């Protein structure tokens, strides 16, 4: 499935692509795709003999991960409603989760970065670690197919999903809503106090929650905290009713 003709170049990290492949048991007989997956554009900018960075493989890996994780969640939790399935999948493929996978695999030391990124701590930046993980998934899919990508992802996915499942059913609605919003790259929910009434010792606050400029839920309570939690819960229920989409 390989479609490139790319020479191997000097290593940029403390671990070569060959060493990484051996350590993790990655099925690359030809290391060119893996080398590309580890190559950030900052490295390409400083090395004219390097033909491509990992952004196209990152794009492919993102799509492969969405499918693999979505199918796995669907089959693993047969009674879970659609809204919760979406939340689970989103939590598993968010930048922070994939960066954590990269750290567990110690991918940072094999990343090929330019001097500026290296000096700026790029080997431990969530965005770069996430991109590298996605690119390796894309490279595995391109080189060996879906089963190879699945074999790479599943050992990391299953324990992470267990933790997220517990969190989904124990954390408060406001935290859950923020997690969902950030996983969908919609920013932080905004809570707006619309009205307060009653005497000082028994006030009632009415609060709305907005995400991406859209009103998703309202709540009332004897404190702003309680009203915000109620609004967040109502927003989560609205999201579930709409299949997890904003």
| CATH fold-type name of the largest domain | Ribonuclease iii, N-terminal Endonuclease Domain, Chain A
Backbone structural class? mainly alpha
Structural shape: elongated
Sheet having the most strands? 3 strands, antiparallel
Amino-to-carboxy terminus distance: 37 Å
Helical segment count: 11
Major sheet: arrangement of strands: 1-2-3
Q: What is the percentage of strand-forming residues?
A: 5-15%
- Provide the CATH top-level class of the largest domain: Mainly Alpha
The CATH superfamily of the largest domain is: Ribonuclease III domain
* Portion of residues within helices: 55-70%
Q: Average the pLDDT over all residues and give the rounded result.
A: 88
Q: Count the beta strands.
A: 3
> Residue ranges: pLDDT <50 for 5 or more in a row?
1-11
Q: What is the helix/strand order?
A: HHHHHHHHHHEEEH
Q: How many domains make up the coordinates?
A: 2
User: What would you say the CATH architecture of the largest domain is?
Assistant: Orthogonal Bundle
Rg of Cα set = 22 Å
